[in-house]
Amino acid sequence: MAGLSALEGAALVAGGIYLLVMGLLGRPDSPTQAEMGGLTLIALGAIPLVAARGLLLRRSWSRGPALITQIIALPVAWTLLRSHGVLIPAGIVLAAASLTALYQLARPATIEALGIRRPGATPDADTEA
Predict the structure, then answer these.
(1) Which one of 3, 42, 68, 72 is CB 3.0 to 4.6 Å from 16, fit for a cystine?
(2) Cβ contact 114:58 at 8 Å
(3) Exposed, middle or buried by CB within 10 Å (0-12, 13-18, 19+), for 73?
(4) Separation in Å, CA 98 to CA 66, 72, 80
(5) Residue 81 CB burial class (10 angstroms; 0-12, 13-18, ≥19)
(6) What is the pLDDT along the chain (129 residues), one digit of tens a residue?
(7) pTM for the full model?
(8) Nearest CA among 49, 41, 106, 30 for reference residue 76
(9) Which residues, in sequence order, are CB contacts of 31 under 8 Å at separation 6+?
(10) For 38, left (φ over 0), alpha (ψ -120 to 50), or beta?
(11) What sign has the CA pseudo-torsion 85, 86, 87, 88?
């Protein structure tokens, strides 16, 4: 699960770096737009990377950013699937990765491993102080 989140974060950061470099060194139609797009993708890529680290360390807070990232990825995948050419396989991969990650994050085993209690559940007697 952490690996999938890290892979998505790394892809966003790589895309952001590419846009930033092309905005600075290339000849885009709008250098400012390319640079801001690159910085935005880098910032957005940091979210799943931080979530991946939290998931790897079994921190309960990491589930929220990971879920949000996957939910946001679904409309992006849909847009890619409705396009033409080479973007369709990218949409398939993104949709499959997002749905797999959502399933993994919703599994009771994941919730238990992260130490997340269900609403209304009382803490175990061992953890009361």
Answers:
(1) 42
(2) yes
(3) buried
(4) 10, 9, 13
(5) middle
(6) 889 899 999 999 999 999 999 888 888 888 889 899 999 999 999 999 999 999 999 999 999 999 999 999 999 999 999 998 889 999 999 999 999 999 999 999 999 999 988 777 776 655 554
(7) 0.81
(8) 41
(9) 23, 24
(10) alpha
(11) positive
Nearest-CA neighbor of 68 among 55, 54, 51, 43? 51
One-letter identity of residue 20: L
Residue 29 in tokens: 């139609």
